[in-house]
Amino acid sequence: MTYQATIEAADKTIASQGKAWEAIDAETVARMRAQNRFATGLDIAKYTAKIMRADMDAYDANPADYTQSLGCWHGFIGQQKMISIKKHFGSTKQRYLYLSGWMVAALRSEFGPLPDQSMHEKTSVPAVIEELYTFLKQADARELGGLFRDLDTARDGGDEVEAKRIQNEIDTFQTHVVPIIADIDAGFGNAEATYLLAKKMIEAGACALQIENQVSDEKQCGHQDGKVTVPHEDFLQKIRAIRYAFMELGVEDGIIVARTDSLGAGLTKQIAVTKEDGDLGDQYNSFLDCEEVDPANIQNGDVFLSREGKLLRPKRLPSNLFQFRAGTGEDRCVLDSITSLQNGADLLWIETEKPHIGQIGGMVDRIREVIPNAKLVYNNSPSFNWTLNFRQQVFDAWQEAGKDLSAYDRDRLMSEDYDSTELAQEADEKIRTFQRDAAAQAGIFHHLITLPTYHTAALSTDNLAKEYFGDQGMLGYVKGVQRKEIRQGIACVKHQNMSGSDIGDDHKEAFAGEAALKAGGSNNTMNQFAAA
């Protein structure tokens, strides 16, 4: 409904109530409705799921249409990210939010900083989703509030052309609300626990949930050692649980991202149930590291498998975990991925130990032999040393090509001494084009960085502390922060406005009329930034 149509509809409702509602202004109602387009988290999930599905179709038609996100651990960070995207690019198209379980654990748990092992409160995840969308909706309200004030100014000045232009901008306003891919870890329990948490996350606004095939109570960060996977059927139960949650809540096109940690996981907690040769359980068990056993040498407490007429003893650790054969990680990743897509998942996530397009693409090619439109969400992880990885990749390629490498020491390529070299420049170019190239060559639909804003917060705070508490004093803040905010057009320099003071003034005026005590008067020091 257009802005004018909303005014007219509200006016009819107000008129129907007679004198009792005569102080209610129809245009103010229309403005408040525009500023609160999404009444519930489910409204957001339904809206964003359609966006993400359309983006997936667009990527299938053209891999250049990949999508991106940055992980955000607080509503304000997510809000500022989307404000920046709209400012610099004019559109939020193909840009999402990512919510990392790692950052929730490290930054948002009541226990304080925790490792990424599913020890944080499961309720903290939907709470942060709700917080992110609250801040994005506030960004809408703030920007629209500015348009409403501009509209009033144009009308007061008798500029009908400008008034119509602004009204059209209101009607075509692009919301800051975008899809969020939210990390449900390994489900925080069994399939029922996964279903219950999934519902909370969807009700908070998440249209896409990412779940991994690790054991829930042994869960580790994807870039740490000690990862333990579960048999396929256990994982598929949780995928089905999430689908039921989406269906129950009416988000029938909700997206499930199935993550496999098998590449770096050498352990499993249990031997899979198998009913016939070659079934999923049998395929899972075939990767176990086993030794053939002479029936005469059976020991008390041993666990055995039978395969092809042989009695096999899986290698069991003191932790009671079973070990996979070395070198089976990629095969297990491929089987995990195919199985997940065949059983209701929409996208894949393969956690790798390095950002190598050839490695990722090799696995995707094998998956696409079975599922032609398979596509990935990929973690451009801060756990990778991107500089060293890509310099070594270039070094190895040059070495294979027979190029003279006498000026380089492969083990020291991280050194600043190499920053201006041809090798470093080629590596940086490969990093710059990594997302584009991987989308085209390795089936990556969505590129994300899990915890970039964790690092930016630490880096910017370090820089400010070094200057402010050192010789620079207040100049450390003014030169390093405020002056840059003003010159780069960072809206947050007017922090009172960003926090909602002008929105509050609009409401006070609507509620109290001339009696309203507004904060944005002549004595507001934010007026010093009027030209910013």
TrEMBL record:
Sequence positions that bind Mg(2+): 183
Active site: 221 (proton acceptor)
InterPro entries with a match to the protein in the record: ICL/PEPM (IPR039556), Isocitrate_lyase (IPR006254), Pyrv/PenolPyrv_kinase-like_dom (IPR015813), Pyrv_kinase-like_dom_sf (IPR040442)
Catalytic reaction(s) noted: D-threo-isocitrate = glyoxylate + succinate
Keywords assigned by UniProt, alphabetized: Lyase, Magnesium, Metal-binding
Cofactor: Mg(2+)
Keyword Magnesium annotated: yes
Molecular function in Gene Ontology: isocitrate lyase activity; metal ion binding
GO-annotated biological processes: carboxylic acid metabolic process
SUPFAM superfamilies, alphabetized: Phosphoenolpyruvate/pyruvate domain (SSF51621)
Cofactor note: Can also use Mn(2+) ion.
Family matches, as NCBIfam families: PRK06498.1
Name listed for the protein in its UniProt record: Isocitrate lyase
Organism per entry: Alteripontixanthobacter maritimus
Gene: aceA
